[in-house]
Specification:
Layout: E1 3-7, H1 9-15, E2 23-28, E3 34-38, H2 39-53, H3 59-68, H4 75-86, E4 93-95, H5 101-114, H6 118-127, H7 133-143, H8 147-168, E5 171-175
Parallel strand pairs: 1-5
Antiparallel strand pairs: 2-3, 2-4
Helix pairs in contact: 3-4, 6-7
Length: 176
């Protein structure tokens, strides 16, 4: 059964299919919140847990201390710490997919098919060949003033991928 979930599209969309070496993005499947966890957050959490509890602590012990005792932390830090406490024992937090270079390349190929002007079409086809394809593609978009068309195209594609991914997680989004 699909779970209906309100999700702020302005929070979710920019972080969907993005990649970072030092951060992971999660969707809270209870609240619809999007949470960014950095490596610094993980290190802080691990150190804090060890200092508070030693080697072993249950999730409920950790969350109890975070929610009841730690009042001097800002809301983001509390949210991050609670998320980290639940990651290992809950399916509540779902990691958003990262950037997929081959998918991005496929988007460029599919966009080119939509271009009817033969000169622009040929220039874009040439631009995506070989190393440096992404930067040449962007330069060609600029040369032929195709950025608006590209942005609309890619927004539509990304929305469809977001909806498909959420469906694969048994979530029916209600974007606001």
């Amino acid at each position: 059964m699909m779970k209906r979930l309100r999700i702020d599209r302005s929070d979710f969309e920019p972080l969907f299919e993005t990649s970072s070496y030092d951060a992971t993005v999660y969707l809270d499947s209870d609240t619809g919140d999007v949470i960014i966890i950095t490596q610094d957050d993980r290190d802080t959490f691990d150190t804090w847990v060890y200092e508070q509890f030693g080697e072993f602590a249950t999730t409920s012990q950790i969350v109890g201390v975070i929610e009841k005792v730690i009042r001097d932390w800002d809301a983001r830090k509390r949210e991050v710490m609670v998320t980290l406490a639940h990651l290992d024992d809950s399916d509540r937090y779902i990691e958003l997919p990262g950037q997929n270079t081959s998918q991005s390349y496929g988007d460029m190929e599919k966009f080119i098919v939509t271009i009817k002007d033969k000169t622009q079409h040929a220039a874009l086809e040439t631009a995506i060949q070989g190393k440096g394809a992404f930067s040449r593609f962007k330069n060609t978009l600029t040369k032929y003033d195709l950025w608006d068309a590209w942005n609309k195209f890619i927004e539509d594609r990304k929305y469809k991928r977001m909806a498909a991914w959420l469906k694969s997680q048994n979530i029916e989004p209600s974007f606001f």
